[in-house]
Each structure stands twice: as C-alpha cells, then as structure tokens.
Design brief:
The chain is built from one helix and seven strands; from the N terminus they run H-E-E-E-E-E-E-E. A four-stranded mixed β-sheet has the order 1-6-7-5, with no helix packed on it. It is globular.
C-alpha cells in the first residue's frame, strides 16, 4: 500500500510541474501538463493567430500543435491571454485538443 501511495504522489508531482517553452521560460503550472516533449503547451505559428477587436482567432491544423489532429478554430478573449515571455504565441490544450486552457500572446506594442 505504501508503494502505491508513493507512486501516486510521484505521478501527481510530475503533473503539476510546469515545463519550459522552446525558448527556455516556464509555462505556469496551472496551464501545462507533461514536459517539453509531450506536454500540452507549445509555441504555435504566428500565421495561426489573427488579432480581432474582441481578442484572437486561433486557427490550427495538424502540425501547428503536437496535440492537434484536425482543424480547429478558437475564439479567445484578449483579457484571457497571458503574457508571452518570448514574443511568440503559445497554446496549452487540456484535457484534449478541443479545449484551450491557456493562451500566451506577446505584448501588442502600441
């Protein structure tokens, strides 16, 4: 019983640790699960993001994010975006590819 509890604690601890973006900064622990190889957060192509008056439209196809297997269009509010620390867009999908959990956008610069 003790070994099972230990394994559960290790698994939980590994799930709540934030992994790093490609450029080296850490995603917030709330946003990400996994690591830099299989986690649900990653940089997405700038061409996938359109800025609108109400926020962002993110269009992803397979290859735009490691978890995406079909075309998605996400409408995300500007106020819900988190600050990207590397000037790139990043998206965390959890618990599945249909659910954006966190979206990171660079400063608008105006």
């Amino acid at each position: 019983m003790r070994s099972v509890l230990t394994l559960v604690m290790i698994a939980f601890a590994s799930c709540v640790q934030a992994h790093e973006a490609q450029t080296g900064w850490k995603y917030e622990a709330f946003c990400c699960n996994g690591n830099s190889h299989n986690g649900d957060c990653q940089m997405i192509p700038t061409r996938s993001v359109k800025i609108t008056p109400s926020g962002f439209v993110v269009q992803l196809t397979p290859g735009g994010h490691r978890l995406v297997t079909r075309r998605h269009i996400f409408n995300l509010k500007q106020g819900d975006a988190r600050r990207s620390q590397d000037g790139e867009y990043h998206l965390c999908l959890f618990p599945d590819e249909n659910t954006p959990r966190c979206f990171y956008a660079p400063d608008m610069g105006f």
